[in-house]
Amino acid sequence: MEFHIVNDPNVDDIMDVRRGLIAFNDPFVEDAQEMDAGKRVGGIVSKIWGNWMYIRFLWVDPALGDKGIGTQLMQKMEDHAIKQGCHSAWVDTLSFQAKPFYEKCGYRCQMTLDDYPVAHQLHFLTKKLVDRPTL
Predict the structure, then answer these.
(1) For 82-99, what is each residue's pLDDT tens digit?
(2) How large is the average pLDDT for residues 2-8?
């Protein structure tokens, strides 16, 4: 398998990750990429703003969920963010998605919205990527 960091993902790159995430979410709601023999089996779409990286989308093919791909993608994206000057990262995730996964990756829940959008929760998690110098 190969990992690719795409600094300026095109619409197809983003939609590949979103389609996988949408397929995962469908049973629960109404309405960085990994390649295996040329087939995308996961990816992360993130945005860097200031010294923070925001993870917009993370998806791994459920058939490969126990292979450590998500963890590898997170580490590679965090390493990339550090090289871009980020000291921290944040992500939001619904209660039926990946909160335990992000916590396993070192993220800490900072806030939870209950009954979002209905009968679920929206969690906001952060992680310090590097120690910031004190002033």
Answers:
(1) 999 999 999 999 999 999
(2) 75
Give the pair of three-digit tokens for residue 67: 């292979």
Interstrand relation of 33-36 and 2-4 (parallel, antiparallel or unpaired)? antiparallel
- The length of the chain in residues reads 135
Report residue 17 as tokens. Answer: 């990750």
Q: How far is CA 135 from CA 51, 94, 128, 132, in A?
A: 16, 36, 17, 9
Calculate the alpha carbon distances from 46 to 76, 78, 102, 106 in Å: 12, 10, 15, 17
Per-residue pLDDT reduced to its tens digit, 22-39: 776 655 444 355 555 567
Q: Nearest CA to 42 among 82, 3, 94, 81?
A: 3
Note whether 12 and 43 are within 8 A (CB).
Answer: no
pTM of the predicted model as reported, rounded to 2 decimal places = 0.74
Residue 66: is it exposed, middle or buried by C-beta count within 10 angstroms (0-12/13-18/19+)? exposed
For residue 127, give the nearest of 81, 96, 69, 65 by alpha carbon: 81
Interior angle at CA 128, CA 33 and CA 71, nearest 5:
30
Name the CA radius of gyration of the chain, rounded. 15
